[in-house]
Structures are given as C-alpha cells and as structure tokens.
Amino acid sequence: MFNNKACFIIAELSANHGGDVEIAKETIRAAKRAGADAIKLQTYTADTITLNVKTDDFRIKQGTHWDGQYLYDLYTDASLSWEWHKPLFETAKEEGLVCFSSPFDNTAVDFLETFHVPAYKIASFEITDIPLIEYVASKGKPVIISTGIAGIEDIELALETCRKAGNNDITLLQCTSAYPAAPEDANLITIPDLKQRFNVNVGLSDHTMGIEAPVVAVALGAKVIEKHFILNRSIGGPDAHFSLDEQEFKQMVDAVRLAEKMMGKVDYELTDKKLKSREFSRSLYIAEDVKAGELLTEKNVRSVRPGFGMHTRHYKDVLGKKVSQDLKKGTALNENFIETES
Q: What is the CATH number of domain 8-44+79-263?
C-alpha cells in the first residue's frame, strides 16, 4: 500500500463530521483536493469502546479540551455511524483515495472486512489491547500502530503479537497523545530510532498545531504521515481545535512533497553542473608580476577565486620555486610555469 519513495499522507476524519454524512462526504472530497493519499475513519460505538457508567473512573480529568465529560457521552457524540461507512467508502473510491479505519473491537474488524479494507490502524490508546491487535493482525493486512502512550515493552508486545499472527507488514507511528501536542513534546528524533530498533516502517501521527512536524518527520525518514482533517473548524466537535482545514492540509502536503524533493539522494558525483560551479573555487594565482627566475613567495602567489589555476594543495610545494618565464598578476599558475630542478 505504501510507496517506498513517496510519503503516504493520511487525512484522519475522526469526529470531524458534525453528525452529518454529507459533511463527511465533502470532507473526503476536500481531502483529495488537499493532496491526501488516504482518508481514515474510526469505527466504534460508545458501547464498543467503554461502559455507560457515570463514576469518577469514567469522567475525563486529564487537563484536556474534553475534561468533565464522561467517556460514554464523548464517544456517543464523536462516533461515526456504521451506516455511513458504505457511502463514505464509495465516496473515497470515486475520489481515488485509499479508505481504511481504526477498529476498536472485533465486531468493528468484522464489519470493516466486508469493505475489503486495505489496512488497519491501531489507535494510540489501543496499543495495550492485545486481543484486538491479535485479531487485526490475523487478517493479513498492513497494520499501522500509533505509539502515543507506549513504552518499549508495550511496543515490543504489540509487534510480537502481530508477528505471532503471521503479520510482518507493520508501521509504527511516533505519536504524542496530547490534543493538541506541544512542539517540545513531539520528540520526532524517535522516528529513526523506531526504525532502527524495531526494523519496521515508520511515520508520524501528528497532533501538534501547524504543519512543521510532518515536514521534519519526513526528513527523519517518516514514510507515513497522519493528520486530523476537518472541512471547516466552524463545524465544531471534539477534535476540531487541533485539526487542519483544507487550505492548511494542502500547505502541509505541499511542504512534505517539497521536503521529499530536497532530501534527494546521497550524491557525491561531480556532475557537469558541479564542475561548472568549481570555476568559483579557490586555486593558485600569481598575485604580483614576477620575472623569469624569480622565486614564488607568499606575497606573489596566493590561493584565490576562481579555480582555473593549480590546486591549493600544491601551495607549500611551489613556495621557493623559480618561475620559468615572466608572469603577470592574475595569471593562473600551472606546473609549466615552474622551473624543474636539474
């Protein structure tokens, strides 16, 4: 599903549908216009993700935008109707976008299988749900896992679970599970470490404000970028405050694609362009008029631009040598102008 050369950019629909399937459809169309490669849904109901219990355990108190709400109420408002999945998958197909989802229990996986999804995403808070990861991995599709709340042991267990299920097509996304995440908490240098440490594909699930983190992530080797996307923040909803709109998302995509071009390849070849530019490099030139038989000194020979004279590595070698002919200031020095020792 992923092109090894180009970063795979995912627009996360999440709860940014305003409770209206037509808004959700238009969001998919906007994601295509903005340059996304894929649209990702979240497949759950309040009952598949939590319990309808109004005790302190189930009330959010993390210093977040959602503090004071009970989990069941939040997920009731945020969930995407399962009846909408079919028209949304159809809209994505019409737009030429990959469409897949984050399931939050086995019934969601079974439901998504009816749409022949090309991949599954394990959300940050589900990385500790080993039975879910095992069931997802058993479907033989690429598995993308956010690492937002995970320590090394959590990541190792999730990977071990996938591999025991015979699934080695795994991508780990560096993620900071704060909404929004502060720039100083992004820890993007973790991206190459994830790749080296766990030998998997890597990327970024970004919750920072703005577009800078994905660009840096690409420079650090990210092959997948996931960012929350909203048609218009005026729609509101639980995730609106840290989601990008169409114009912002397009700016991000353009910046990522430019960063990829800038990354280029490891290149030490002396191309024609480089060789032409070497005319501005330093070389040895006569800095004062000299007569035949005079000695070359620090005063009458110098390393200067342009680069048509002898290489500067010969500077100390030529000092104290006699010139074989009269040379005017500005003459590019070459070995033919130096008397050979008899």
A: 3.20.20.70
